[in-house]
Design brief:
The chain is mainly β. The chain has strands at residues 2-6, 9-12, 17-24, 32-38, 45-51, 54-57, 65-70, 75-80, 89-97, 100-103, 107-112.
């Protein structure tokens, strides 16, 4: 099972990025896929998650980020708008279904002021 995160980059404050998490080897459409981030010197924190019929967001990104899934492509997305310098971090996707819990590699997001 592999989760491949991509789409990070350098953007100015107020800009947008869309992260992708491509899943291979297993489907998480009946489970949960989440995005987490880790800034330098800080602990990894929850950003957003999607599960059947529901999405959940951290307060810090609510109204700015949108998580979605295209099950036919087995790909999950994190649309990030109105980016702030404090959103700078390495972003990771994670898939959980029953006893299975997989992390993808990170993708760097840097927001300049």
């Amino acid at each position: 099972v592999q989760l491949q995160a991509s789409g990070g980059g350098l953007v100015q404050a107020g800009g947008s990025l869309r992260l992708s998490c491509a899943v291979s080897g297993r489907t998480f459409s009946a489970g949960t896929v989440g995005w987490f981030r880790q800034a330098p010197g800080k602990e990894r924190e929850f950003v957003a998650a999607i599960m059947p019929g529901r999405t959940v967001y951290a307060d810090s990104v609510k109204g700015r980020f949108t998580i979605s899934a295209v099950n036919a492509e087995n790909t999950h997305y994190l649309q990030m708008n109105s980016l702030k310098p404090e959103d700078t971090a390495v972003y990771y996707c994670r898939g959980v279904r029953g006893p299975y819990d997989y992390w993808g590699q990170g993708t760097q997001v840097t927001v300049s002021s």
